[in-house]
Amino acid sequence: MRPESFEFLQNYLNNPSPTGFEKEGQKLWLDYLKPYIDTYFVDTYGTAVGVINPDAKYKVVIEAHADEIAYFVNYITKEGYIYLRRNGGSDALIAPSKRVNIHTAKGMVKAVFGWPAIHVRKPEQEKAPTIETIFLDCGASSKQEVEEMGVHVGSVVTFEDEFTVMNNKYYVGRALDNRVGGFMIAEVARRLKEEGKQLPFALYVVNAVQEEIGLRGAEMVAHRIQPDVAIITDVIHDTQSPMYEKKTAGDLACGKGPVITYGPAVQNNLRDLIIRTAEETETPFQRAAATRATGTDTDAFAYAGAGVASALISLPLKYMHTTVETVHQDDVENVIKLIYETLLRIEDNHDFRYFS
Known about the structure:
This protein is of the alpha+beta class. It has helices at residues 3-14, 23-33, 143-148, 176-194, 216-225, 246-249, 268-280, 297-302, 329-343, and strands spanning 39-42, 48-52, 59-65, 70-76, 81-87, 99-104, 107-114, 135-137, 156-159, 164-166, 170-173, 202-208, 229-237, 259-262, 286-289, 309-317, 325-328. The strands form three sheets. Strands 1-2-12-3-13-16-14-15 form an eight-stranded mixed β-sheet, sandwiched between helices. A six-stranded antiparallel β-barrel has the order 4-5-8-7-6-9. Strands 10-11-17 form a three-stranded antiparallel β-sheet. The N and C termini lie far apart (44 Å).
């Protein structure tokens, strides 16, 4: 990876962008993207969209989501301890002993998820942490002191964590789900610009908000753009690590290439074009099967308006919704390559219908 891209990836992943509060991350992303696009817009809730060849009538979207899971302050005890509600699919089980940032109008307030020491717990009565039992300690001894620090009910909380590289081949950090997707679609736009490719259609590079609470940003922007085609990228579980059941979760591995999904929301002809592209360009890929829904922004685009030919290219990821989400750098490069090469094979007014 070129140094400038790697620097952006680090900065972008380290910047917190909790669901509903993605603004600062979106600014970073758009600033990086601007040299490679013709124009852009930002919608009411913060979805950022860069556009290439905006005057063309046929519209193709490449999309990722920008938000990360988080917590909201829900209750402050008179002793100054803070209880929370989830903002997205946050996992209470991993919380104890983690450091966090509480976002306030006065700036970041440092806090920790406290937990009783092993010496004072009774093993026979021990239960796993839950959202009702985990709590934050921000060093205050009263509710008043907490509030004087700027913390109040509704303040958003994110884990304090930084991007690292493991064994010279794995990227590790918080919120690779799915800001690494935002990075990858931005790199597609960069390659198109720097390699002088002229697309016969309008390309919308979409970094959507609020996916973690129900695909909400994608729903809004899909209605606004009204695209003809949408290629979505998100993460998918690597199932090689312990505690996965391949019979139900599939057999997917980091380092073996992008994952192409089969399912009702995935348009078969677009999916097959992506598979042919992978084969023609010798890009390794894997297959996954969805049930009624993919659980990604693919569903929001597929069923928007009169229907959008949509497909999903996923990045294998270990330890989803933890602070050590892990992806293989080869897979990142191959997702970028596969989206880029697929775009070069989409024609103006490309008809993806099954029959006419």
